[in-house]
Amino acid sequence: MTILSDAKIREYMRLGKLVPNGDARQAQECSYSFRPGRAFLAGDANSQPVDFRYGVGPKHVVVDPGKMIWIRTREHVKIPTNMVGFWWQTNSLSRRGLMLVNMSMVEPGYEGDLACLFVNFGNQHIPINGDTNIAKMVFVDIRGDVENPFQGQTPRTQYDASLHDLAVNQPSSFLQVGDLATSLDKQKTEAIGEIQTARQKAVADAVAEFKQDAPKKIWGTYAWAALALLLLTAITSGANWARDNLFPDSKKIARAEAEATLRERVTIPAAADSGETAELTKRIQELNTRIAKLEKKEP
Predict the structure, then answer these.
(1) Burial, 6: exposed, middle or buried (Cβ in 10 Å; 0-12, 13-18, 19+)?
(2) How far apart are CA 201 and CA 208, in angstroms?
(3) What Cα–Cα distance (Å) separates residue 143 from each residue in 2, 11, 32, 84, 255?
């Protein structure tokens, strides 16, 4: 197998083969660079095809991030039965994220138009005009004869109609990623709106309920406070009365107990020496005096 050089490609072109209606300047190194003829935006039934050379309307198209587009080449091909063509991506578009997803082989004997299916996998808006090189083809000699080369030819009008129908019935984005992102963004906005509405309603309901129940709750609170004040007053007064009337003086009780103990433990025999008796009596009196003083100092 041998890949044809640019010179060999141009030689075949002069013979009406490979790219019979092409521009010899598009044959460079070992490939031919194809330019756009018509574009069909995927997923948009109302859009009109963009004709890059003829007709009315824009002469360029912009491929948004995530979107798909079909582009039919300006040139058509005529592959000899002893050759095969390979359809390749261009570096200038792939570097920007616009990828050719239907790279394939063009069979020996095929004659007709070519179509590119592009998906913008990048985040840039990529313009395509009539001079953009959209794909390359390398031509390879086949060793040996092909027994059943490709046969048949599709007119351009029919080819374009088929591409248009294909584009209309496809999603606008690859695997519907772009449509899904738009749908998720819409659902997110709707969910936030519902949350805000529910929150505003909850606040309004709470305010209304407070306005309705506040007077009752305030009077109830005042009633409980008044009752608590009355109880506190009653308890305080009752405690003072109980202290003064129900409970005896603890100091008096203690003193009486002390005196009783002294009387039990201290016995003055009648026959005791009068001097000792007088001294003991004196000490008891001093002790009673000290106890009385201590009782007065205590609160």
Answers:
(1) middle
(2) 10
(3) 9, 20, 22, 11, 137
Is the C-alpha dihedral spanning 193, 196, 202, 207 positive or negative?
A: negative
Nearest to 266 by CA among 282, 290, 253: 282
Q: Is 169 exposed, middle or buried (0-12, 13-18, 19+ CB in 10 A)?
A: exposed
Amino acid at 77: V
Q: What confidence tens digit (pLDDT) does each residue in 231-290 have?
A: 656 566 655 555 555 555 555 665 666 566 555 555 555 454 556 667 767 777 777 777
Question: Which stretches of 169-273 are DSSP H helices?
Answer: 177-241, 250-265
**Cα–Cα distance, 60 to 70 (Å, whole number):** 13
Q: Where are the beta strands (DSSP E) in the chain?
A: 2-3, 27-28, 31-34, 36-41, 50-51, 60-63, 68-73, 77-78, 83-88, 98-100, 105-106, 111-112, 115-120, 126-129, 135-141
Q: Which residue type does 21 have? A: N
Position 273, amino acid? D
Locate 249 and state its tokens. Answer: 């003086």
